[in-house]
Design a protein that fits this description.
Strand order of the largest sheet: 12-11-10-13-14-15-16-17
Helix content: 40-55%
Bound molecules: nicotinamide-adenine-dinucleotide
Radius of gyration: 28 Å
CATH topology of the largest domain: 2-enoyl-CoA Hydratase, Chain A, domain 1
Number of helices: 26
Shape: globular
Structural class: alpha/beta
Length: 651
């Protein structure tokens, strides 16, 4: 069957695209559209056209297999020009997603309608690009310029309701899309042809002062990413110099960005995220069906994991130590879900149903029907053994048992369980209902079905699941410990905390290491260091500055003092007392302090990450360098547009 077909239904020519899975703008689709338009124009019996797609979605992007290939005519910008030049009106009938080139095709059509669950967007910035087929020129001539800027610079799609509000579509339709499109066609047959978007004037164009503000705010938000600001410049160019000049400018910038390091990095991570959780050894392994999820411990992590599981549609039971802790767990989940309700992510009805799907209990016997259980109790091997002993006793023999431990040896936890093959690690990140990353830790005895079930669970929760082996800190915390150590060495060698943090922020991290420690609170890691002190090697270099801060009761942001001093608005200020402490420590140790440039600071951090990453790979803890990049970007604030520490330092 052809990828693009034209059928005549009365006075209407229906162009149908069938290019699964996403109806990408492959060469055959582009050529097919042009061919169908020629036929429609040449057929006097056809009065209007409909452009519609088979399958799950409208055109949802470009054909990735054509990336890096020489362009083959007709290229997309020409297809869209051809759509604009048609003599009969064409209606884009959108379902699923109209993304990137897909939305640009729809912008070339004379009308757009969408079903109520459709999403429309220009996500090119996510790959370090700008729209390359007229999106920056046509969109601001259809919707208010500020809305166009917001869509293009955020890369986030809008719902059909929003699209209708801002004028991006002409109608939202209910029921069968093709029927609705045909009905809509009847209403426009007598109208004049709409003016092509390139010939319209921009909607509410900003004045020069407003442009300055828009650009300043976008630059700040972009934190070093080039594409969002380039997109604004392209929009502005098209507005101030006319559509033709705008199209040319857009194309030039698109090509420039396509060859940029940032776009290469963003494309790398885009593909890495999609491939990292695919394990060939699990091909064909059927995961167990999950209906009911048990969560042990309703603290920070447990409540987050319970919330994520509820949102994914599972029944959830939280087991806690006593009634009060049960109530606290339930309240925390309720607070998380109320947040989603307030932000409009769920409605009241769904909120009520989710809360009804949650139960709490102090008796492990209530876990008899759970299909998967995640333990999130205190980080203590004795407590974990106790919990897994009870799980072995009360859970179904094939229920998957997972630990959310940050550092403990899950092989040791599994060893004492009935059926250790079903014990795995599910290492969530805080807040667990928001953070996308999930490290799935395979114990040495983990069986394929339990692993497949864990990955299916991660998918259901909408997480990016990264497989990893058992070691101290798994992938992310282990790399973080390594680079933290080197940051502490730099303090003794001559750098100051705020200087290291500033270099990290300038590099693209949302915050520096020391500000992050202040946010998390310094006393927990202090307690861990004290606990581990007897096991520390004598030859190991140890930086005691964090301990000194705690001894001075500087526990971080929550008590206003840590590596920084916090003002009344909670804003971090470098503290001369801390600087003095750092300098005195170097003197005490006889270290001659030296200057560090920002580049040296970043190089030190990157090589620490790289070295630990190499060790992790050689030990088989991570499957690939990509897995490490995915973890550091999604769990530790590594700037996405740099592609991750392994990509950036690739040899
Ligand atoms: P938390 O102190 O907030 O919560 C622990 C909860 O477990 C408490 O509510 C406690 O009452 C409950 N609990 C303790 N023993 C229990 C038992 N025998 N049966 C039932 N409930 C019991 O701790 P947290 O921060 O949620 O951490 C939990 C686990 O998750 C730890 O292993 C931690 O290392 C790990 N983790 C924490 C984070 C984080 O950022 N906080 C991130 C990843 C992993």
């Amino acid at each position: 069957m052809s990828i693009v077909t034209l059928t005549r239904e009365g006075h209407i020519g229906v162009i149908t695209i069938n290019n699964p899975p996403i109806n990408a703008t492959s060469h055959s689709v582009r050529a097919g559209i042009v061919d169908a338009l020629d036929q429609i124009d040449g057929d006097p019996a056809i009065k209007a056209g409909i452009l519609i797609c088979e399958g799950k979605t409208f055109i949802a992007g470009a054909d990735v297999t054509e990336f890096g290939q020489p362009p083959k005519d007709p290229i997309l910008p020409d297809v869209i020009k051809r759509l604009e030049a048609t003599t009969k009106p064409v209606i884009a009938a959108i379902h699923g997603h109209a993304l990137g080139g897909g939305l640009e095709v729809a912008l070339g059509c004379q009308y757009r309608i969408a079903d109520k669950s459709a999403k429309l967007g220009l996500p090119e910035v996510n790959l370090g690009l700008i729209p390359g087929a007229g999106g920056t020129v046509r969109l601001p001539r259809l919707v208010p310029v500020t809305e166009a800027i917001s869509m293009i610079t955020s890369g986030k799609p809008v719902s059909s309701t929003k699209a209708n509000e801002i004028g991006l579509i002409d109608a939202i339709c209910h029921g069968a899309l093709l029927d609705a499109a045909k009905d809509f066609a009847q209403t426009i047959l007598d109208r004049d042809m709409p003016v092509a978007l390139v010939d319209r004037i921009p909607v509410n164009a900003p004045d020069s002062a407003e442009w300055d503000e828009i650009i300043a705010s976008a630059s700040k938000k972009a934190r070093g990413q080039i594409a969002p600001v380039t997109a604004i410049n392209a929009i502005r160019h098209g507005i101030e110099n006319g559509a033709e000049a705008g199209l040319l400018f857009e194309r030039t910038k698109f090509v420039e960005l396509r060859d940029s390091d940032q776009s290469k990095a963003l494309r790398h991570i885009f593909f890495a995220e999609r491939s990292v959780g695919k394990l060939p050894e699990l091909d064909g392994v059927e995961p167990a069906t999950i209906t009911e999820v048990g969560v042990i411990g309703g603290g920070i992590m447990g409540a987050g994991i319970a919330t994520a599981s509820l949102l994914a549609g599972f029944d959830v039971i939280i087991i806690e130590r006593n009634e009060e802790a049960c109530a606290n767990g339930r309240n925390t989940v309720e607070k998380h879900l109320s947040g989603s309700l307030k932000r409009g992510l769920i409605n009241q009805d769904r909120f009520d149903r989710l809360m009804a799907a949650l139960s709490t209990n102090t008796d492990y016997a209530a876990l008899g029907t759970a299909d998967l259980v995640v333990e999130a109790v205190f980080e203590d091997m004795g407590v974990k053994h106790d919990v897994f002993g009870k799980l072995s006793e009360h859970c179904k023999p094939d229920a998957v048992l997972a630990s959310n431990t940050s550092y403990l040896d899950i092989n040791e936890i599994a060893a004492k369980c009935v059926n250790p093959g079903r014990v795995i690690g599910l290492h969530f990140f805080s807040p667990a209902h928001i953070m996308k990353l999930l490290e799935i830790v395979r114990t040495t005895r983990a069986d394929a079905k339990s692993l497949a079930t864990a990955f299916a669970f991660g998918r259901a929760l909408g997480k990016i699941s990264v497989p990893c082996g058992v070691c101290d800190g798994f992938i992310g915390n282990r790399i973080m410990s390594a680079y933290r150590k080197h940051c502490e060495y730099m303090l003794e060698d001559g750098a100051l905390p705020h200087q290291i943090d500033a270099a990290m922020v300038a590099f693209g991290f949302p915050m520096g290491l020391f500000a992050m420690q202040d946010m998390a609170g310094l006393e927990i890691s202090w307690a861990t260091r004290k606990r581990l002190a007897p096991f520390r090697g004598i030859a190991e270099r140890y930086v005691a500055l964090g301990d000194y801060l705690c001894e001075l009761e500087r526990f971080g942001k929550k008590n206003g003092l840590g590596w920084y001093r916090y003002d009344e608005n909670g804003k971090a200020q470098p503290d001369p007392e801390v600087d003095a402490l750092v300098i005195a420590e170097s003197e005490k140790k006889g270290i001659a302090r030296r200057n560090f440039t920002d580049d040296e600071i970043i190089d030190t951090i990157l090589s620490a990450m790289r070295n630990e990453g190499d060790k992790i790979l050689s030990e088989g803890i991570a499957n690939s360098p990509d897995a490490i990049d995915v973890v550091m970007i999604n769990g530790y604030g590594f700037p996405r547009h740099k592609g991750g520490p392994m990509f950036l330092t690739r040899k």
